[in-house]
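// run 5 | inverse folding | seed 20
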């Protein structure tokens, strides 16, 4: 396994910088069990789904598992961009780990495990039907359990409402009627969503962002009774910081009694990156971040003292990126564009064999794209391929996947490889291939006898900023450049494009192998994928 540091949140001097993860772990939720922290995030139509990250100090994180190996329901054998697994919650109760997640078209699901590093149970749909999102289970001291959730206007016709319902103590079903506990449409909390429930000093708390992903704030509700009535207060705003949003997340504590809050920031093309904020209390209301003089709410910090976790914590680390495919299993940095099939790939011990899959659709809707998240604001990824085992009309290459995507593909024709640079544009809100427009540029042919190996260089550079809304919030503008080489030294530019995220997800980059011939037995070898900054 190749190891390289890409994003260093731990400054090595007792301090850390935000974001702690410059990668698209959107809608994070987290818990502490003993001295271990576990965090999960949305995964939408990518599989395996629901990444589980682990840390001992809240700053250094590694992906250690996935809650689900495939997305429930057969339609996810094809990419359903923007659908699938939305904002989840993770909880620990009486020796069992619970992950509750929504699929806005299908329902609310629950999966459990006694060992979070091991196999999780097959998800159970505890509330079938469309509309509810962002569920969070809660167990009270009297043994009763509850579920709080938001709603998706696109599925149910209205938004900004939070519901509560009693839940079976085992988490496997709901009891009684759901009750509306808060309506953001009746006050200034429009688009309130992502509720996370806790209890402290006799108060029931629901942490929930409002105001929208790119320009909103953190709100907290509290009540003396589980079903309310709830009062509310804004506890974190962007203020004069550079952290727009700041959006939903999780309250966690340390064994030394400190309180912290993990949340995401939407930075457009790179997706929703993860921040860590100190948290304090004032008259039984939390303040997230640091409150400036005269304010009763906090603003995000960029650099701060690391959490006091009592122990030595762990060494500096981050989610894996680079790969030489020498492991027994596919690395946890990889996800497919849809539910995967075993016959798509093989790990040989020396490299990754990608077998051809019949190409029946546009590139962005191919299920067999093997992808990973952007790991930093700027980076270079060099993929080394061996395409000598392709058959005629087979192709393989590298893709930059978003609503606007770029593809550098090499198709075999006789003894030649024909490189092409493809640009695709997906229509927002549509998931049908016929709504996608593709254009291609054919590049000079390569003699396969003189090119036993190919190198594809994928480079992301920030070239400025852009305005995306009426509030004139500035977001990074990234340029993606794709180049190729037959010797790993001399590269030819294939194409460039401005990066555009996918539907609710950041841009991903990865590899694929496909064919126009249903009977093809060809394959591509992916030797190494190496990230640099």
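// decoded
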């Amino acid at each position: 396994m190749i190891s390289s540091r890409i994003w260093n949140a731990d400054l090595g001097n007792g301090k850390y910088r935000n974001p702690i993860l410059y990668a698209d772990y959107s809608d994070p939720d987290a818990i502490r069990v003993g001295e271990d922290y576990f965090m999960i995030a949305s995964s939408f139509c990518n599989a395996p789904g629901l990444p589980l990250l682990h840390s001992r100090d809240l700053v250094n994180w590694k992906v250690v598992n996935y809650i689900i190996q495939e997305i429930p329901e057969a339609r996810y054998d094809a990419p359903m961009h923007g659908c699938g697994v939305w904002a989840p919650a993770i909880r620990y109760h009486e020796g069992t780990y619970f992950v509750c997640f929504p699929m806005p078209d299908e329902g609310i699901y629950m999966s459990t495990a006694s060992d979070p590093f091991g196999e999780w149970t097959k998800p159970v749909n505890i509330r079938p039907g469309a509309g509810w999102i962002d569920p969070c289970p809660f167990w009270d001291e009297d043994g009763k359990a509850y579920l709080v959730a938001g709603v998706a206007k696109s599925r149910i016709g209205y938004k900004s409402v939070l519901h509560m319902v009693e839940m079976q103590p085992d988490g496997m079903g709901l009891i009684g009627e759901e009750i509306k506990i808060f309506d953001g449409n009746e006050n200034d909390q429009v688009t309130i969503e992502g509720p996370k429930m806790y209890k402290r000093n006799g108060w029931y708390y629901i942490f929930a962002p409002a105001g929208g992903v790119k320009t909103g704030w953190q709100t907290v509700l509290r009540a003396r009774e589980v079903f309310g009535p709830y009062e509310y207060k804004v506890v974190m705003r962007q203020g004069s910081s550079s952290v727009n949003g700041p959006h939903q997340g999780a309250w966690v504590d340390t064994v030394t009694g400190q309180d912290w809050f993990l949340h995401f920031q939407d930075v457009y093309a790179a997706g929703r990156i993860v921040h860590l904020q100190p948290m304090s209390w004032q008259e039984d209301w939390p303040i997230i971040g640091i409150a400036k003089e005269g304010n009763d709410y906090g603003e995000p910090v960029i650099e701060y003292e690391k959490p006091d976790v009592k122990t030595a914590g762990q060494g500096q680390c981050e989610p894996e990126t680079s790969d030489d495919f020498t492991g027994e299993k596919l690395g946890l940095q990889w996800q497919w564009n849809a539910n995967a099939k075993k016959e798509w790939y093989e790990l040989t011990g020396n490299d990754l064999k990608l077998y051809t899959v019949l190409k029946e659709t546009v590139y962005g809707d191919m299920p067999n794209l093997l992808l990973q998240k952007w790991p930093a604001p700027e980076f270079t990824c060099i993929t080394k391929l061996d395409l000598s085992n392709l058959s005629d009309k087979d192709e393989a290459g590298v893709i930059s996947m978003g609503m606007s995507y770029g593809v550098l593909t090499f198709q075999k024709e006789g003894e030649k490889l024909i490189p092409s640079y493809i640009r695709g544009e997906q229509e927002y809100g549509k998931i049908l291939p016929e709504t996608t427009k593709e254009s291609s540029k054919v590049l000079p042919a390569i003699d396969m006898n003189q090119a036993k190996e190919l190198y594809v260089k994928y480079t992301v550079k920030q070239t400025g900023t852009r305005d995306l809304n009426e509030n004139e919030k500035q977001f990074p503008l990234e340029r993606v450049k794709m180049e190729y080489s037959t010797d790993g030294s001399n590269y030819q530019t294939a194409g460039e494009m401005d990066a555009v995220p996918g539907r609710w997800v950041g841009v991903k980059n990865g590899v694929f192998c496909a064919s126009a011939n249903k009977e093809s037995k060809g394959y591509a070898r992916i030797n190494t994928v190496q990230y640099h900054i």
